[in-house]
Structure formats: C-alpha cells, structure tokens
Amino acid sequence: xxxxxxxxxxxxxxxxxxxxxxxxxxxxxxxxxxxxxxxxxxxxxxxxxxxxxxxxxxxxxxxxxxxxxxxxxxxxxxxxxxxxxxxxxxxxxxxxxxxxxxxxxxxxxxxxxxxxxxxxxxxxxxxxxxxxxxxxxxxxxxxxxxxxxxxxxxxxxxxxxxxxxxxxxxxxxxxxxxxxxxxxxxxxxxxxxxxxxxxxxxxxxxxxxxxxxxxxxxxxxxxxxxxxxxxxxxxxxxxxxxxxxxxxxxxxxxxxxxxxxxxxxxxxxxxxxxxxxxxxxxxxxxxxxxxxxxxxxxxxxxxxxxxxxxxxxxxxxxxxxxxxxxxxxxxxxxxxxxxxxxxxxxxxxxxxxxxxxxxxxxxxxxxxxxxxxxxxxxxxxxxxxxxxxxxxxxxxxxxxxxxxxxxxxxxxxxxx
Amino acid sequence: xxxxxxxxxxxxxxxxxxxxxxxxxxxxxxxxxxxxxxxxxxxxxxxxxxxxxxxxxxxxxxxxxxxxxxxxxxxxxxxxxxxxxxxxxxxxxxxxxxxxxxxxxxxxxxxxxxxxxxxxxxxxxxxxxxxxxxxxxxxxxxxxxxxxxxxxxxxxxxxxxxxxxxxxxxxxxxxxxxxxxxxxxxxxxxxxxxxxxxxxxxxxxxxxxxxxxxxxxxxxxxxxxxxxxxxxxxxxxxxxxxxxxxxxxxxxxxxxxxxxxxxxxxxxxxxxxxxxxxxxxxxxxxxxxxxxxxxxxxxxxxxxxxxxxxxxxxxx
Lengths: 416, 316
Prior knowledge:
The complex is a heterodimer of chains A (416) and B (316). Chain A is α/β, with parallel strands linked by helices and 416 residues long. In chain A, strands 1, 2, 3, 6, 11 and 12 form a six-stranded mixed sheet that branches. A four-stranded mixed sheet of chain A has the order 8-9-7-10. The radius of gyration of chain A is 24 Å and the shape is globular. Chain A has two domains: 9-150 and 307-367, 3-Layer(aba) Sandwich (D-Maltodextrin-Binding Protein, domain 2); 152-306 and 378-415, 3-Layer(aba) Sandwich (D-Maltodextrin-Binding Protein, domain 2), CATH 3.40.190. Chain A is built from 19 helices and twelve strands. In chain B, 72% of the residues lie in helices and 2% in strands. A two-stranded antiparallel ribbon of chain B has the order 1-2. Chain B is an all-alpha fold and 316 residues long. Chain B has helices at residues 3-17, 26-58, 75-82, 86-116, 122-134, 137-148, 154-161, 177-205, 209-217, 222-233, 235-250, 254-260, 271-280, 285-310; strands at 60-62, 68-71. At the A-B interface, helix 1, helix 3, helix 4 and helix 18 of A face helix 2 and helix 13 of B.
C-alpha cells in the first residue's frame, strides 16, 4: 500500500511538472511592455546568413540599447532551413516577432499582419532606399517591407580548367557556354564543365538563371506564370546541357552549397555564384585562379538574378510602433548599416550605403550587373507556393520532359 | 463499506445485467479517481490533447502564414487523397516498414543467438551492438550520407579505388530515388538492430536450459531444437520487438529526410517525409495535419491487424 502511494505521488508529480512545463510553452510571455519599468521590448527574429550574423546583430542591438535605454531588443537567430516553420508557428501561436527578417512577405500582407513601411521608418530613411528595391517591396502601391540586403548572381569561372580545355574566353551566350562546358567535362578525372544545382536547396534560383536568361519570366504581382511558352527555351537548354554531359552527374538532386565547395576545390569549370562566394574562396582555397563574369544568356544580353531580403514589422502592439521606428532609423544609418552589409558580403540597398561601398574591388563585378537585375515576383501572394513547388519539383527536369515539369509546377502553384 | 452502498450497487448491477458486477458502479470509479487521476492527467496532457489539436487542425483552413481562416470541413482530406502521388507514397511506406522490420528481426535473431553464447570478449561485442543506439539517428545517417557523397565520400572513394565504380567522382547514391531509398533502408536496419537484438536476447535468457537439453536427449538436431523449442518460446519477445519496430519505423522521418531530402519529385517519399514537405515546402499546415491523421489511422490499422493475427498477448 505504502509503495503504491509513493508511486502515485511520483506520477502526480511528473504529471504536474509536465503540464506546468507545457503550459509555459503554450502561454508564455510574448515579451510585451513591462509597465512597471516603462520599458518596451522588441522581439527580433532573423535568419543566419553566415557565422558572423549573430555577432553583427548583437553589436547593432548593443549600440541601439545604449542610445535608447528605455527599449530592450530580444534577438533570435534561426537557420534558413528552419526560419519558415519558426515564423509560421509563432504567428499561429499569436506570438509574431515585432521585427522579422525574411523573404516572401505578400502572404502576411494579405493577412493584414504588417505595418506599411512608411509607418515604421522616418521619411529620411525611406528616401534613402534605392527606388527599384523599394518598388519590389510594394503590394498595391504600398511598400510593406524594408529592403535589407541585395545580392546578384554572376558566373564564377575556373581560369585554369578553361585554359587546359583550350577555351580562350569566358562564354557569354548559351552556345558558347555549352561548348566550353563540354570541353571542360571532356578533361575527365571527375571534372565537370558547368556546376548545375537543381536540388531542393535553391532550385528556384538556378531555374530563374536559365528560364529568364532565355527571355522567360515567373510572372508578376498579379499572376504567377511558370507554364509559359517563354520559359520553355531555358528549360530545354538545361536538358541540352545535361544530355551533353556538360554538367556534374545528377544535377537534379545536387544542392548548391556542397556543389560550390567542389567548385572551390577546383573541380568545376563554371558555376553561378553570389557575392559571399568570393569570401568563401578566399577562405577555402585562396590559390584558386578564377574570374567573375556576367551570366551567359541565350543571345548574350546582360541579365542577372537579383535577390533581396527584407525586414518587416508585425502589428502586435500599437505602442511599439515608435520603438520599431527608432530601431530601423538607427539600423539604416550609414555608420551602422554599411559595416553590417560589408561583413556579410552582400550588396547595400541604401543610396548612402552604395556610395560608401562604391570603391570595393570584390563587389565591383556584382555592382556592374545589378542594373540589369530581375527579381522573383515576391509581392505575389502565390510566390511562396511557387518557391516551394520549384524546390520540390524542378530537378525532375533531369529525367522528365521540360514541358511536363513546368506544367506540374504551375499546377501545384494554382492549387495553392 | 456501508450497507446502503452495498445494496445500491447490487440494485444497479441487477438492473443492468441481472447479477452484481464486482466494483463497477460510478461511485467506485469516483473513489478510485484520486489514485488514477494523475495518470489520466498525464495521458490527457501528452497524448489526447496533441492528438485532438491534430484532428482539429486537419479540418481547418490555415493560411500560408499560419492564421486560422475557419472551418474547411473535409477539404484537406480530399486534397490528400487527390494528390496524384498519394498511392505510390502509401505503398512505398508499406514497403519501407515491411522490409526494415523484416530484415531487422531476421538479423537480430542471428545476432542475439551469437551474443547468447559464451565466448571470450562477449561483453565488448555486446557493448558494440548498443553503440548505434547510443548515437543520434541523424548523426548516424549523416555519416552514411557524407560517406556516399560523390567527390569526397569515403564509401564512394573506396568503391572507386577497388574498381567497382569507374567514374572518378563516384556514383550519386543519394542523388537517385531508388538507391537513396535502398541506402535509407540499410541505415534504418542498422539503427533498429540494437533494440531488437536486446529484446530477443532478453527472450533467449528466459528459455530454460533443461528444455533445450531435453530436446537434445531426444535426438533433435540444432535446427530442429531452434525451430521447435527455442523459437516458440521467443514469441513474447519477438511480438514486442516487431510491434514497437513497426510503429517506430513507420514514423521515422530523419533518415529519409537526410538521405533523400535533395531529390526532386516524390519518388523516394514515405508518408512521413510527405508530411514534412507539406509543412516545410508548401506551408500547408492544414493538409499536413490531415495527412498526419491518415498516418495515425494507418498505424492503428496495422497494429490492430498484427494483434489480431499474431495474438502477441496470448500465452504460449
């Protein structure tokens, strides 16, 4: 009897503990205002761009809190892989962060969760953004997100391999690219001519590079158009590259980051890269003899895929608007923003930032191609679905007819 | 117990079944409540409540950003079954469970038999069998995944060095649905072995030595002794091992997620990775919940069928 009593007590204790812990998870303190001390707390949710990200944000927050002792900022850093599920969970739990750094935001606008950009930054800061970037954050004529960083793509070329294969100049058109890549692949010994990452990590980017380079488009704020005749030449060209053996093996399921490592090791002739790739090469294989050239297109015209990430402010508490405005104004001031964007290796989105970094040698090839940059239709509420559909389906182009893959992606987008 | 309770319980019992049932009245239940309440609370908190939320979500219309937009009836279930790859994924899930559990149990039977024999260094070998269990599944899978990686994986390099593969960068084992799925089965068997082996080993320890000896005296060979004497006595241990493995393997996400995660299309997916894709790629929490409910029901059906056919609870 005594034994079972003790046992029951143990179970009761365990149950109470479990329920108490669980209730912490459900309710919790949303980090609202602490009325007693008159302090405002801002929750900041950001993804990790590199190993520097956390430290960079901590520096920003330290500086901001020193200047605004009545505001506290809570930082939460997540990996890009987890970011989407974390923010979705927080929103459905009614605990959206006050400030969020992410990609597609049109869905939040549709659900009326975000402040318009003009409500959370001062007019001075707002006018400092590059106009084309701000325009890319507009839904129905109102900007709902603040540009944070921009990146452009360019072709990284392994000079040594091209020379070995007898290719005199870096390719500018698809025909030249196919020719050069086939020759480099013919070197054998596991060397691939062109690195083509169509795996789930970032299939939409490589797809855009090819489909748009052939005159295609993913659509605009009104309609997503993946299954469009203008996208077919690019898709067919991808197949041509694969069939000719000009790419690495199994491009359909190769992710971008591991493939970039192989380029850095010097085993790939050409691959599309980003500004941070420059830093990765400097760290991983400084002896690599490479150059950065514009991405080859169907007819050789200038084109690059621009990607812009944004900061957005969620409408949680009316009286936090002031604090958010103060934080953004502080963050986008050139003294704070320029070192931040420079350390991450991306391109600045403010006019003052571009001016300050105009002399940077490493960024020059990217700043050169930026005027021709095209962006994802991220102001379309369906873009998030299209993005997911590309990640899970586009790589099938390796084995399926190009048209079928485009149709399948469009179908998944339309099913929403 | 007072007289009045006695009579009332008798009357209640008589009214319902014609004879008094032992301790079946509401009052008895009430009296037992303080003792079973903590356990009930625990079951409610960690089992019933989450399952309830899952069922609830599966009938809601949840927006891409996670807001509840009201009831959707059974639309989410309709979407799950209308998905053209649903049935291939369903059958692949069954293949996955049957092959992994089958191979695991067969290998474990052999391993347990070896570990049951006394030989020098047995303790160390027994310890070695536990190690895959001690390591995290994701870690074990990652080791295999990177070993299979073209260009720098050691398994690939080995196969190239011994001449089995003639491409210098190695074969894309994890880049093709078929081979990635096959390797996932290998990993799943590997991580399921320790638990299964030890359950069977425990079963072997309960087989009385004199029974085996008696079989020998009667002239039974080793095979006959094993199949007619030892194996029937392992029924209890085997039943537990199989049942727990079925549930575990069916619900296993990390192995397939790591091994087949970058493969486009749905040719290497099971129901679990499909749920993950609904959440991660398509942000459809409502549809993912509906598929989870379907998965939950499938497991219940499989377990019910197993219990019905094998009758694991029945004594030998």
